[in-house]
Amino acid sequence: MNRLITRRLRAQVTALLLCTGALAAGAQTAVPIAAATMNFQQLVDRVVALGYQDVREIERESDKLYEVKARNSKGQLVELTVDSRSGEILREQRKSVR
Prior knowledge:
This protein has 98 residues and is of the alpha+beta class. It is built from 2 helices and 4 strands. Helix content is 40%, strand content 29%.
């Protein structure tokens, strides 16, 4: 009788350990790390560090994108699409001066 109880208890403990390990592994991958978005000053600093100047206007397009108007290294007015988390310039479009 003791052997039967010991086997059942051992099987239950093993099952519990397997479930706990699976839950812990799932929790590590299921929770994404939210990247912080840059504030306007950080964004200006990043754009200037990348060689742009005379930052004129910043608009938040979405949670992930900013639209920035500035001048490139040739002095041309450009509209930049910038990743709000990394500061990476995703697109540069030259604007005509009016």
